[in-house]
C-alpha cells in the first residue's frame, strides 16, 4: 500500500473521529494545556509497537526524534488555543492551508524537496480547498486566533519534516516511538509551571463529556489515524501528506450538514461544492500519479533481444536479412 492510500485512510479516520468529538463533547477543547498534556502522555502507548521492530539508533537520530515530537506538541498546544479562542471552527480549518505550506518550505530547506508537476498542482488544489472551507465557515477571524493558527502551522510543518528525517535513519516503529517519547518529555515540562500544573492536575469546572467511555474509544480510534499519518510521512512527501488533511476538514464540514443538521446558505453550499471539486481533482491527480509511478517500467531495466519477439517473427527477420544479401 503506497503513501497516498494510507494518507487517504488516515484522513478519513481523523475526520470521522472529529465528527464524533462534536457529538461527545459539550464544548470543544475547553482546556488547551490539559488536552495537550494528556495527548502527549497518551503517545507513550506507542510502546506496544516495540516488539514488532524496535532497533537502536544514533544519538543524532534520537535528538531529531525528540525535536520532532516536541515541535508536534507545541503545534498542538497552539492549535488547541486557537480552538479555545475561536467562536467558530473555520479559522482552525485554515491550518489545513497554512500547515502544508510550512511543511513544503521546511522540506525545501532541510530535504531539498522538489514536487513533480502533477504533485505541485495537487498540492495547490488541496491547499486552496482547505482555505475555501475555512473561509466559508469562519465569519469573524480574530487576530489572536490567526496568530495561534500560524504558529501551530509552523510547528506542525517543522515536525513533519523532522519526522521524515527520523524515518530516513530508522525504521518506522523505532522512529515513531522516539518521536512520541519526545512529545511526552516536552509536555512533562508543563508541570514545572505552577498555573499549568494546577490546570492539568485539578482542571475543575463542569463535566465536558456526554459519554466518557465513548470519548476514550474515539481517542483510540483517532490514534490509529495519527499512526497512519506518520506512516504515510515515512513513505511519501511530507508536504503532500499534510495537504491531504483538507479531506479531513471537508468530512467534518459535510458531516456537520448531514449528521448535526447544520444549516448553510446557498452561497456557502456553492463554495463547498467548489472546494469539493478542488479536493476531488487533487485526489484523482495524486492517486493517478502515484499509480503510474509504481507501475511504470524501469527505464534502466536490462533488455534481452529475442525475448521480446516471438520465435516466428525472429525467423522472418533472419530470412528477410538473408534475402537482402
Keywords:
2 domains, 325 residues, 14 helices, mainly alpha, globular, 74% helix
Could you say which structural class the secondary elements and strand pairing correspond to? mainly alpha
Order of helices and strands: HHHHHHHHHHHHHH
Instruction: Kindly estimate the percentage of residues that lie in beta strands according to DSSP.
Output: under 5%
User: Which overall shape is indicated by the principal axes computed on the Cα atoms?
Assistant: globular
Number of domains: 2
> How many E strands?
0
- Residue stretches low in confidence (pLDDT < 50, at least 5 long) are none
Radius of gyration: 24 Å
Count of separate DSSP helical elements: 14
Q: Roughly what percent helix?
A: over 70%
Keywords: Membrane, Transmembrane, Transmembrane helix
Transmembrane segments: 36-55, 62-84, 104-134, 146-167, 173-194, 220-241, 247-266, 273-292
InterPro entries: EamA_dom (IPR000620), EmrE-like (IPR037185)
Pfam family, one: EamA
Plain-language structure description:
With 325 residues, the chain is mainly α. It folds into two domains: 1-26 and 115-138 and 210-296, no CATH class; 29-86 and 142-205, no CATH class. The chain has helices at residues 3-24, 32-42, 59-85, 90-93, 95-111, 117-137, 143-169, 172-188, 194-201, 212-235, 238-243, 245-258, 266-295, 311-324. The model has no long low-confidence stretch (mean pLDDT 78).
In short:
The protein has 14 helices and no strands. It has 325 residues and is mainly alpha-helical.
Which helices and strands, and how do they pair?
Blueprint: H1 3-24, H2 32-42, H3 59-85, H4 90-93, H5 95-111, H6 117-137, H7 143-169, H8 172-188, H9 194-201, H10 212-235, H11 238-243, H12 245-258, H13 266-295, H14 311-324
Helix pairs in contact: 1-10, 1-12, 2-3, 2-8, 2-9, 3-7, 3-8, 5-6, 5-7, 6-12, 6-13, 7-8
Amino acid at each position: 500500500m503506497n503513501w497516498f492510500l494510507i494518507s487517504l485512510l488516515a484522513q478519513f479516520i481523523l475526520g470521522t473521529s472529529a465528527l464524533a468529538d462534536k457529538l461527545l463533547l459539550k464544548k470543544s477543547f475547553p482546556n488547551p494545556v490539559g488536552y495537550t498534556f494528556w495527548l502527549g502522555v497518551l503517545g507513550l502507548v506507542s510502546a506496544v509497537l516495540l516488539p514488532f521492530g524496535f532497533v537502536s539508533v544514533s544519538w543524532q537520530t534520537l535528538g531529531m526524534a525528540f525535536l520532532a515530537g516536541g515541535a508536534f506538541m507545541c503545534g498542538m498546544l497552539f492549535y488547541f488555543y486557537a480552538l479555545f479562542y475561536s467562536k467558530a471552527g473555520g479559522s482552525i480549518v485554515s491550518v489545513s492551508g497554512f500547515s502544508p505550506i510550512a511543511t513544503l518550505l521546511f522540506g525545501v530547506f532541510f530535504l531539498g524537496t522538489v514536487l513533480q508537476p502533477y504533485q505541485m498542482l495537487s498540492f495547490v488544489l488541496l491547499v486552496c480547498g482547505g482555505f475555501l472551507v475555512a473561509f466559508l465557515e469562519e465569519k469573524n477571524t480574530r487576530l489572536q486566533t490567526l496568530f495561534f493558527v500560524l504558529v501551530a502551522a509552523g510547528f506542525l510543518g517543522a515536525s513533519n519534516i523532522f519526522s521524515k528525517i527520523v524515518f530516513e535513519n530508522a525504521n518506522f516503529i523505532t522512529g515513531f516511538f522516539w518521536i512520541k517519547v519526545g512529545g511526552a518529555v516536552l509536555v512533562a515540562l508543563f508541570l514545572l509551571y505552577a498555573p499549568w500544573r494546577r490546570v492539568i492536575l485539578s482542571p475543575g469546572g463542569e463535566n465536558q463529556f456526554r459519554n466518557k467511555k465513548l470519548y476514550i474509544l474515539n481517542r483510540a480510534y483517532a490514534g490509529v489515524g495519527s499512526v497512519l499519518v506518520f506512516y504515510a510521512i515515512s513513505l511519501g512527501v511530507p508536504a503532500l501528506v499534510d495537504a491531504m488533511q483538507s479531506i479531513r476538514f471537508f468530512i467534518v464540514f459535510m458531516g456537520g450538514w448531514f449528521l448535526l443538521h447544520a444549516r448553510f446558505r446557498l452561497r456557502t453550499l456553492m463554495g463547498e461544492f467548489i472546494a469539493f471539486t478542488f479536493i476531488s481533482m487533487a485526489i484523482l491527480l495524486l492517486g493517478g500519479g502515484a499509480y503510474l509511478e509504481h507501475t511504470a517500467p524501469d527505464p534502466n531495466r536490462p533488455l534481452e533481444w529475442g525475448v521480446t519477439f516471438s520465435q516466428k517473427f525472429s525467423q522472418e527477420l533472419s530470412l528477410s536479412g538473408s534475402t537482402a544479401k
